[in-house]
Amino acid sequence: MTRSRQPQTLRQPITIQGRGLHGNRPCQVTIRPVEQPTGLRFLHGPTGIEIPAKADLVGDLSLATTLVKDGLRFGTVEHLLSALMGLEIEHALIEVDSEELPILDGSATPWVEALSQVGTQSLPGLRRFIKVLRPVEVKAPNKWIRVSPHSGLRLRYTIDFDHPAIGRQSRELSLTPEKYRRELASARTFCMDKDIEYMRSKGLALGGSLENAVVFSAQGPLNETLRFEDEAVRHKMLDLVGDLALLGAPLLGLVEAHAAGHALHVALAKALLADTDAWTWQDADAASPRRHAPLPMHAGFNPAPALA
Ligand SMILES: [Zn+2]
What's the CATH architecture for 8-122? Predict the structure, then answer.
């Protein structure tokens, strides 16, 4: 598949209904095409308040990514943002009638299938990337996340849970829509059985069930099967793709994460945007449909093909 050099939106509106994971309330989402490349924006139908998917509007990161503006909150935005960015649909208006997006099956697959059914259309101009020029890192005790220069978007993720059913898992991939569909989209959100009571006491995960999450006990998953042996780390990568949408543009860089989560993902997005010497804008190379413009060679740095 030739990847588009032009900004993409979806071809027709799609509507999906479901219930929120944390509030367990019904909600309906309609994703609409836009006519100009204006990024990914949420619109709360009842109030008309619009919230762009931007890192500086993230208000809450307890177990999901929540955008806050003018007193309005949109929770659990990361799986839909992940599906859109994974498919390179970087411009759309997402109309929501509730304050939490539906959890569906806990993965990005329902979004990916609906978006794939209608397909994409090109918008005027060229895709515009945030190209990383030098490393930016955010650290916390026993966890860290870093972005460094790379010709495409490459993700390297490690989780290390002190839990016998998960343990240490690592995965690395260069993101393309095909790889996103095949390797990340269907990985479901997960939690530990021992955490459920605590989350419920905080009013979280009220809509959670084995229909929309993998629940690990010490003996293994309570669900009948896993979709991948390392489904947990794949879901973390899915979340990372969604949280990187909050940069406001697709990224050209290698993102390495160790034991990270939404808070560190968003902290990295904010740290990168704030360090304006660490990145630059780059338009998709008009001359070559399969590769981005060549990166300058640095000693010790070998740019990998964008579609490795
Ligand atoms: Zn998630």
Answer: 2-Layer Sandwich (3.30)
